[in-house]
Write a structure and sequence with these properties.
heterotrimer, A mainly alpha (about 375), B mainly alpha (about 180), C mainly alpha (about 475), B: about 180 residues, mainly alpha, Four Helix Bundle (Hemerythrin (Met), subunit A), 7 helices, C: about 475 residues, 19 helices, NADH_UbQ/plastoQ_OxRdtase_su6 (chain B), quinone binding (chain B), NAD (chain B), Nuo/plastoQ_OxRdtase_6_NuoJ (chain B)
């Protein structure tokens, strides 16, 4: 009953903010995803250096902080080479297609309670479609380069992305089943103190412990259904593969096929491919945070009179609410990215058969079982 | 404004389809198909069928189009005349040999006339009901789980049959593997 | 509607049974499963039920068609003992696909909603595409599968388009809903409806291999392994005609004047092409392919002359045709495998030379089935043709009747070629070995054909 009454109110608010948020969300995300490369590359280098007991970039600027700008300057100056035997049109177009498809994913991302590009009701489904869109651009790059390594890389990438969409989709379905919505903003609202439905401890109503007022980590999806923690692990592994990150970086395995589908690219086009890779990392990190880790909600719960959740998250519609929301979401996303980098520098690359084994014989069956559990859990929640 | 968007996407769809037909390079046709499919998805959104639009992108772009591209890649390509020298360095083209245009044009014109006269003469009963934009997710979900539960479930049997068939046909059913 | 659920579950069970080392259990298990489905079919006998929110409708007609389909499947599976010896074959997959395709066939027979028709056609077709190519090492089988798949996918697309247009015209997928639309708008039926009818008919006629949509049939029937050809030419055809009858007799009977002329023309074309081309074949299997086209033509007469007698005639004809076809293919299978020539299995007419002398039983079975297909009295085929022709006479369409009789005399020529080869030609000396169970199935089919030929009234009054 409560659901029926509150949903119109939610959608109404989104509609009021619609023109404003679209105009605001686009530049913010553009700046965010390109600005993230600056942070991300520096972070990646420093983390890898730390893991390998090195110092990393130290020369340019204090602690090598300006290293990336030096790199960018270098890339800008470089000649934009198109190989003689390449299919010129496809070759030139491919990086833009890849970046556009990744960037289109940010259109439905809620950054704060009020800031979201498009409050479409099919947000999650749209994101999955976008992930598969990426494949076309990669194929374009691989074929257009007319280089066997590029084509091999593209083939591997497509096989990997298409396969890992299955466990990815299954884990996302688990969340959708718990939340009963495809709208990312609605999923976000459910995981905090501003929810419209009561939350129970571990989602089990029979326990009778109402945690709606506690908020914080207790209303996150990974605690609303503890099995979603496993789902998050699968989600994380699958997104690593979707983003072509190590240990699933077969499409660009340096030691085997030079640099995969971006072998022939140089200069700014290479930078654009690089940018899309980091944008993809950010996108999936955001998605994981929104679906599993409470979105823009604070992790700190209200404990009796100590209203930690109330203090650390403002109510939606206020400036404080937006600021805290953005802070928490970015923090969670960045934490996930740190883990991505950690994984990259500690695990060796998988073989193709191991990749497929992991996807079809390990992750997919577990995903299906989790889906079943989530269905049952949803029955416990109401 | 809405009309403008509609015409833009209709033009995208038509232009994409035309380009698919006109270009001789099969790979370009495949990629132009992408434009046309996206245009159709956008038209679905304008027709208030948001779930269908995303499904269109997911199934056709993510699935069918990738298969088409793989199909094109696996197409037999004639060897270049020279393997060395400047002539060898040419892009990977797979061109269609088919240049007949009269019959296709006649068939297309005939079909166009038929469909046009059909569409201009029929009466769409839903045409008068201008509904505001609303999401179709809830309706589709409820319908699939209530009224259309049996087709929905039986489609699983269809997919299972297809899956079993595909694995059977592609498996290496040789004696060497059977032990 | 238990059989649909049962067969789906049984199919999955069979897939799991494929894990077992021994293949011995598979054949009897499949037979038991089909029998169980057949038994549950009769639970609704005598009543008319709508199932699953107007998705399926069972009545006596649907039950009879289901029985024919399940009976054909039972006999085809019973003739499949060769899989057990063939180490390359994967019988679990074959049987599972057969059971799944039966689910599709039953849905085609008893659909009330056009969506169910579509899904049913798809399930049946997808399973048949795979089974057509089940002989993976034979280029002919591969070609058959590919051709069938391409043509079938195309036909399904056309059919789906037709269904969409019907929905656009009437606003409903339900068969009886379309009927009431046609009746309430008797004078201003939307053009979309006509377009939808045409496209739906084209799609369905494709599946039952009626001319001019028959051109895939000879190659596909020829290339497909014989057992599955038997399945294809009986189950698919029966289900297809049941579906056609349902949609024509319920939904579109109000616009009979619109479609009957087209259908009559197609009927004559089908009869002509099927019968005349069959005369020129040297391969028995190809002859059977054209013969199946011509039988589609006879069945179409019943639909063209849609009347009160039609359903009875269709049921009887389908049953007679299925029995004769399966016993013919049964004999062909065992003969072609044991009388191989240099090209492997010999499926030409000369494989039957002198068969009656070495194997009187096989010769007799084949002779009865050929006589039945040709429509000679004292066999079921005669009464089938008789009933079909009666429907045309009742409706007063005499020219089609004359044409059909003329064509069936052409048919006698090519069916008798087999009989002549068996009884009047010299052939190989050693007899063909037949497994006992195989023999019982053939005998049962022959006896049924003869009994129906002697007492055609057995099926009367059931529908």
């Amino acid at each position: 009953m409560i659901i029926v009454e509150t949903r119109p109110a939610l959608s109404l608010r989104i509609y009021i903010h619609l023109p404003f948020t679209i105009l605001l969300a686009l530049p913010i995300f553009l700046a965010l995803s390109s600005g993230f490369v600056v942070v991300g590359v520096y972070l990646e280098r420093k983390i890898s250096a730390f893991i390998q007991d090195r110092l990393g970039p130290m020369e340019v600027g204090k602690w090598g902080l300006l290293q990336l700008f030096a790199d960018l300057l270098k890339l800008l100056q470089k000649e934009d080479i198109v190989p003689a035997a390449a299919d010129r049109k496809l070759f030139l177009l491919a990086p833009s297609v890849i970046f556009a498809s990744v960037f289109a994913g940010f259109a439905v991302m809620p950054l704060t309670p009020d800031l979201q590009g498009s409050a479409t009701a099919v947000g999650v489904f749209y994101l999955m479609a976008i992930v598969s869109f990426d494949v076309v651009g990669i194929l374009m790059a691989g074929w257009g380069s007319n280089n066997k390594y590029s084509l091999l890389g593209a083939m591997r990438s497509v096989a990997q992305i298409v396969s890992y969409e299955i466990p990815l989709g299954l884990t996302i379905l688990c969340v959708v089943m718990i939340c009963q919505s495809l709208n990312l903003q609605e999923i976000s609202f459910q995981q905090g103190i501003y929810t419209y439905e009561p939350n129970y401890l571990f989602g089990i109503r029979a326990l009778g412990i109402d945690v709606t007022d506690w908020g914080g980590i207790f209303s996150w999806n990974i605690l609303r259904n503890p099995f979603l923690l496993i789902a998050y692990v699968i989600f994380f592994i699958a997104t690593l593969a979707e983003a072509n990150r190590a240990p699933f970086d077969l499409p660009e395995g340096e030691s085997e096929i030079v640099a995969g589908f971006n072998t022939e690219y140089s200069g700014m086009r290479f930078a654009l491919l690089f940018l899309s890779e980091y944008a993809m990392m950010l996108l999936v990190a955001f998605l994981g945070a929104i679906l599993f880790l409470g979105s823009w909600n604070t992790p700190l719960p209200n404990i009796g009179p100590v209203r930690l959740a109330d203090w650390t998250s403002g109510s939606p519609g206020t400036v404080w609410g937006n600021l805290t929301g953005a802070f928490w979401l970015l923090t969670k996303a960045l934490a996930a990215i740190m883990v991505q980098m950690w994984v990259r520098w500690t695990l060796p690359r998988l073989r193709v058969d191991q990749l497929m084994f992991l996807c079809w014989k390990v992750l997919t069956p577990i995903g299906i079982v989790l889906l079943l559990i989530s269905g049952v859990w949803r029955l416990l929640m109401i | 404004m809405l009309n403008l968007i509609f015409y833009a996407f209709a033009a995208l769809t038509l232009g994409g389809s035309l380009a698919v037909l006109i270009t001789r390079n099969v790979m370009y046709s495949a990629f132009f198909l992408l434009l046309s499919l996206i245009g159709v998805a956008a038209l679905f959104v304008l027709a208030s069928a948001d779930l269908l639009a995303v499904a269109q992108v997911m199934i056709y772009v993510g699935g069918v189009l990738v298969l088409v591209i793989f199909g094109v890649m696996l197409t037999h390509k004639p060897k270049p005349e020279t393997t060395t020298g400047p002539q060898a360095a040419r892009p990977n083209y797979i061109l269609t040999q088919h240049r007949a245009w009269l019959w296709p044009l006649l068939v297309a014109a005939g079909l166009f006339t038929a469909f046009y006269s059909l569409i201009s003469r029929i009466h769409f009963s839903l045409f008068e009901h201008r509904a505001p934009f609303q999401t179709s997710v809830d309706t589709i979900g409820k319908q699939l789980m209530t009224e259309y539960i049996i087709p929905f479930e039986i489609a699983g049997i269809l997919l299972l049959a297809a899956l079993v068939g595909a694995t059977y046909l592609s498996s290496q059913g040789d004696r060497t593997n059977n032990q | 509607m238990l059989p649909i659920i049962l067969l789906s579950v049984f199919g999955i069970v069979l897939l799991f049974m494929g894990f077992l080392k021994s293949k011995v259990l598979l054949l009897p298990a499949t037979l038991v499963f089909i029998l169980a489905a057949l038994a549950t079919t009769f639970m609704d006998w005598g009543k008319t039920y709508l199932y699953f929110q107007n998705m399926l409708l069972t009545n006596n007609l649907a039950i009879l068609f289901t029985t024919i389909v399940l009976l054909s499947a039972f006999m085809v599976v019973a003739l499949s003992n060769s899989f057990i010896e063939d180490e390359q074959a994967q019988p679990a997959e074959y049987y599972a696909l057969l059971l799944f395709s039966l689910v599709g066939a039953i849905m085609m027979i008893s659909f009330e909603n056009l969506i169910m028709l579509f899904v049913g056609v798809e399930i049946l077709s997808v399973a048949m595409y795979v089974l057509a190519g089940s002989d993976k090492h034979s280029p002919r089988s591969n070609e058959a599968a590919l051709k069938y798949f391409l043509m079938g996918a195309f036909a399904t697309g056309i059919m789906l388009f037709g269904i969409a247009l019907l929905y656009g015209a009437t606003g409903t997928f339900v068969v009886s809903g379309i009927k009431s639309y046609v009746y309430t708008n008797a004078y201003g039926v939307s053009l979309l409806l006509y377009m939808g009818i045409i496209l739906l008919l084209i799609g369905m006629l494709f599946k039952v291999s009626a001319a001019p949509f028959h051109f895939w049939t000879p190659d596909v029937y020829d290339g497909t392994p014989g057992l599955f050809t038997a399945f294809m030419s009986t189950v698919v055809k029966t289900a297809g005609f049941a579906a056609l009858f349902r949609v024509l007799s319920v939904s579109f009977v109000g616009v009979y004047s619109f479609w009957w002329g087209t259908l009559a023309a197609l009927t004559c074309l089908t009869l002509l092409i099927g019968n005349v081309t069959a005369v020129y074949q040297t391969s028995f299997k190809r002859m059977m392919a054209y013969s199946s086209i011509s039988h589609a033509g006879y069945l179409l007469i019943g639909l063209t002359a849609l009347g009160t007698q039609t359903k009875q005639a269709l049921v009887f004809y389908s049953l007679a045709y299925s029995l004769a076809t399966i016993s013919a293919f049964g004999v062909l299978l065992v003969v072609s495998r044991q009388r191989q020539d240099t090209n492997g299995v010999n499926e030409n007419f000369d494989a039957f030379n002198g068969l009656a002398r070495q194997n009187p039983l096989l010769g007799f079975v084949m002779a009865v089935s050929m006589l039945s297909l040709a429509g000679i009295p004292l066999t079921a085929g005669f009464w089938g043709k008789f009933m079909i022709f009666t429907t045309a006479a009742d409706k007063g369409i005499y020219w089609i009747l004359v044409f059909a009789v003329l064509m069936s005399t052409v048919g006698i020529y090519y069916y008798f070629r087999v009989i002549i080869a068996m009884y009047f030609r010299e052939g190989a000396a050693e007899p063909v070995k037949v497994a006992p169970f195989y023999r019982y199935v053939l005998i049962a089919a022959t006896i049924l054909t003869l009994v129906l030929g002697l007492a055609p009234g057995l099926l009367e009054g059931l529908v």
